[in-house]
Amino acid sequence: MAPPLRGGSILLAPPLFFLLSLGALGSQYCVPRKTFPYQDEDLRLFREEGVWNYSTMLLREEQGVLMLGAREAIYALDLHNISSKKAAVYWKVTREKQKECAYKGKQSEVECRNYIQTLHPVNQTTMYVCGTNAFSPVCDYMSYSDGQLLLHGRQEEGKGKCPFDPFQRYSSLMVGSDLYSATFINFLGSEPVVLRSSQTAVRTEFKSSWLNEPTFVYMDHIPESVDSADGDDDKVYLFFSEKAMEYDFYSKLTVSRVARVCKEDMGGQRTLQRKWTSFVKARLDCSLPEPSLPPIVQDVFLLKDHNWRRSVFYAVFTPQSGSSRLSAVCAFSVTAVREVFNEGKFKTPVAVETSHVKWVMHSGELPVPRPGACINNAARRLGMGNSLDLPDKTLQFIRDRPLMDEAVRPLTGRPLLVTRGPALTRIVVDSVRALDGKEYAVMFIGTENGFIQKAVNYEGEMFVIEETQVYEDPQPITTLRLSSTKGHVYAGSTSGVVQMPVSNCGRQRSCSDCVLARDPYCAWDLPTARCASLGSGRSAAVQSLVEGDTSKCPQPEPVPVIEVTLVPGNNLQLPCSAASNLAQVHWLLSDRPLGAGPRYYQYPGGLLLLNASGPDAGRYVCRSVERARGGTHNRTLAVYLLAPGLGGPGGAGKGQEGEAPVDKAVANSTAGPDIPGATAAKGPGPAEPGGPETQTDGGRVAGLRVAVGVLALLCLALTAALLWKVKREPLLRLLPWGGPRESKAKTPVTEYAQVQNHAASEGKTAGEAPGSPCLGNNHHSGVDFKGNGPPHFTSMRDISCLDGLGYINDESEI
Ligand SMILES: *[C@@H]1O[C@H](CO)[C@@H](O)[C@H](O)[C@H]1NC(C)=O
Ligand SMILES: *[C@@H]1O[C@H](CO)[C@@H](O)[C@H](O)[C@H]1NC(C)=O
Ligand SMILES: *[C@@H]1O[C@H](CO)[C@@H](O)[C@H](O)[C@H]1NC(C)=O
Ligand SMILES: *[C@@H]1O[C@H](CO)[C@@H](O)[C@H](O)[C@H]1NC(C)=O
Ligand SMILES: *[C@@H]1O[C@H](CO)[C@@H](O)[C@H](O)[C@H]1NC(C)=O
Ligand SMILES: *[C@@H]1O[C@H](CO)[C@@H](O)[C@H](O)[C@H]1NC(C)=O
Which of 180, 174, 373 is nearest to 280 (CA)? Predict the structure, then answer.
C-alpha cells in the first residue's frame, strides 16, 4: 500500500492546489452504529443455478415485478418476494457469434456471452432490452403479460445503445420513446458516444475535448420545461468520469463530470450536423477531508421532488489513488448544476508554446443565443424554433468549448457522508417523513464487500444508522434499486440479487436503543413498548432524530442482579456487550471504576477476571456510554454480585494438567433483553460480538475471539500483512499473562485491539486492508473493533508497530 499522498503534492502544478481538499470535518461518524451480519431470514435472495452477473434491474411497480437482466437470462420476479420467480426468458448467444468473438481475441466463456445491459420500459407491457451478444450488441422488444416473458426477436442494431464489452460501465435512459445511451460505439471500446436513438438520432462529436476516455456512470431526465418562465426545454443529465484536459499534470488526472443535453436538440444545420448543440459539461466537486486528488464518481441517484427545482443528485465518490480508503457521498442540487450551465463562464483552449494547449477561463463576449443553451422563448423571439436554426457562431463556440469554467459545488459545501474502509459502490436515497413531520433523505449505500449502509446527514452531522451484510460471501454490490412504495431495497451482484426491507425496527429492543438508532423509519411505540415502523395514526411514540434524546423514554426496568460464586484461583467471565458500535462499555467495581489491573481483561463480549481471589468479591456493574447530540446516554447493562463460595458451578476441564478453570456467569432469559451478552453462548448475533464461550486450555483462555493487535497508524503497510494473519486465524489466542509476556500483561485493557466475532472478520471480506479510526470521531477512543469488515484498529500508545507484529507472529505459531 502506498503511503498517503502528502509529499506528492509538491509535484503538483499550481492549478492543482485548489483541487487538494483539506477540509476539517469536526465530529463525524464513520462507524455504523450497528452492524448486522448476514442473516437470511431478513433477506430474500434470488439466483439461478449456472446464471451469473445479475446486473440490470428495472422496477415495474404497477405490474408488481422486478425485471432482472443477467448473463443470457431475463427474469420477472415478485417485487414483494424476489425469491418467487414469475417468469424467465433466456437469450443465449449463438455458437457462430461466440466463435467469431473468440476469434477476435476475446475470452469465449466470459466475454463472448450475452450480458443483458439495457432494460427500459416502452409501454405498459413492453420493454426494450439490449445485450452485449458476444461483442456484437443487439436490442429487442420484450413483453411481460399473463405471467409470460416474451422476446419479440426483432434483433435491432445495438451499437451505441449497449456496450460491446460487458466489463465496461455504461448508462442509458428511456425518455418517451427515445433511448439515450452513453457507451462506446466500437469493438475496441475506444470511441465513446452519448447518443439519442430516435427519429433524428443525435450524438456527441468524437473529440477528446467532448469525451476523453470516459467512464459512464449515470443518466437521468429532469422535466425542466414544466413551469418554466422562459420556455426552457427538458434536459438529460449524464454523470461520468474522464481524463481531465484542463490540468497540467505529469500524468493524466481523472475528474468527475456532469454533462447535459437538451431533449429537443436536433443538431445543427451545417455545423454539428446530427451532433448535440447543447452538450456542455462541468467538473463535479466533492472534497474528501484529506489531501487527495479529485475523487471519482461511482454512482448517482436522483432524489426526485414533484417540483423538479428541488430535486437533488446524490453521488458516491471514491479516491482515484489507491492510497486512501475513504469514500464520500456528495449531493448536488439540480438548481446548482443548472446555474453553472446556464450562467457560468466557459473554458477556452489557448495555445502556449508550440503544441501545448492550456484551458483557461473564457472572458470574451459570448455569441447569441448562448452556446449550449436549449431553445427557449428568447431564441424563439429571434426566429429560432429549433436547434437547426442556431447560428454557426454559437455552434462553433460550443463545438470547441464544451467545458464550463466553474465546478458544481455540493449542496452543503462538503460531503454528506465520509466513510473509511470498504469502498462504497452504489447508492439509492429514500425520502422519509418522520414523526416530526419533516422529510429526511435516507441513503442506502452498497459496498464492495456486500454490505448496505444506511445513513442520514442530520444538519451537517454524518450518521450511519446501521450496516447490513446482504451477501454471505463478500462481493461488490453492482446494482441498487429502491422501491419506496414497497419499502424494499434490491441489491444485485455477480452471484445474485438480494431484497432487503428499508427498515427492521424490531431489531432495536429497548426504547433508548430505538431512539439512539435515529432511524427516520422507526419510533418507539409507547403503548406496545416496541420499536416499530412509523405507520399511520401512531398515537404515542418517541423519536429524536437530530438529537438522539432518550429523555422521553420510560425508565428502563432495573437490571436483575446476577449472583456469581467466586472460586479462588478460577478464571471468571462476566458477559456484557453494548448494543451499539458507538457505545463504550465501562465496568464499575463497588461503584468505583474498575482499575486496569493485570488480571482484568475487557473484551467485546464482557469482562474476564483471571485467577480470582477473595478480594475480587463485590458488585460488578457494566455500563455503556453512548453520546449523541442530545447528550450522553448512560445505561446499566448488567450487574454481577461476586460472593466467595467453596465450589464453583463450572469446574469443567479440571482434569487438564492443573490449569485454572473458567467459570462463566451465565444468565438466562430472566436477565432481560438489555443484556445481550448475558444470554450466553448464543450464536454470534449483531449485538453480541464475541459470543462468550470459554474453555480451559493449557493455562490460556482459548475460544475467546480476542486478537491482540498492536498497531499504529503509521504502520499501515505492515498492518495489511498482519490482518491477513488475523483473517486466517480467527481464533487468535490471548496470552496476556505469565512467562515472557509479562510486560504485555501490564498494559491497560483498552490497549488491546480486538477482533469482532462476525463473518466479516473471519477472512471473507473482499480485498480489505485495515480500517483506521474515524477521522475526528471522538466517540471512538480506545478499543475500536467494530463495524463492517476488518477491525478498525486504534492507535496504540505505548507499543511500536514492529513490536505488535512480532507478538502476533508469536501467536500464530502456537
Ligand atoms: C418467497 O418465495 C419463495 C419461493 O416462492 C417461498 O419459498 C417463500 O416462502 C416466500 N417467502 C415469503 C415470506 O412469502
Ligand atoms: C407497446 O409497444 C409495442 C412495441 O412498440 C407495441 O407492439 C405494442 O402494441 C404496445 N402495446 C400497448 C399496449 O400499447
Ligand atoms: C460475471 O460473473 C462472474 C462470476 O462471478 C465474474 O467472474 C465475472 O467477472 C462477471 N462478469 C462481469 C462482466 O461482471
Ligand atoms: C493466583 O493467585 C494466587 C494468589 O492470589 C497466586 O499465588 C497464584 O500464583 C496465582 N496463579 C497464577 C496462575 O497466576
Ligand atoms: C455517564 O457516564 C460518564 C462516564 O462514565 C460520566 O462522565 C457522565 O457524567 C455520566 N452521565 C450521566 C448523565 O450520568
Ligand atoms: C432460568 O431461570 C429460571 C428462573 O430462575 C429457571 O426456572 C430456568 O430453568 C432457567 N433457565 C435456564 C435455561 O437456565
Answer: 373
- Residue 450 per-residue DSSP state: S
Radius of gyration of the chain (CA): 30
pTM score, two decimals? 0.79
Q: What is the pLDDT of residue 403?
A: 97
> Measured in angstroms, how far is the CA atom of residue 451 from the centroid of ligand 6?
37
Region at 681 (left for phi over 0; alpha for psi -120 to 50; beta for the rest): left
pLDDT, position 218: 97
Instruction: Give the residue with greater pLDDT, 555 vs 734.
Output: 555
Q: Which of 668, 669, 675, 679 to mutate for ligand 6's pocket (most ligand atoms within 8 Å of CB)?
A: 668
Which grid cell sits at 198? 430516435
**Residues 90, 71: contact at Cβ < 8 Å?**
no
Percent of the chain with pLDDT over 70: 74
Ligand lying nearest the CA atom of residue 86 = 1
Cβ of 143 closer than 6 Å to ligand 2, yes or no, is no
How high is the pLDDT of residue 250? 64
Ligand nearest the Cα of residue 120 is 2
pLDDT at 134: 95
Atom number of ligand 1 nearest to Cα 81? 1
Higher pLDDT, 64 or 1: 64
Domains of the chain (ranges, CATH numbers)? 187-290+331-405 (2.130.10.10), 509-542 (3.30.1680.10), 561-685+707-813 (2.60.40.10)
C-alpha grid cell, residue 296: 471519482
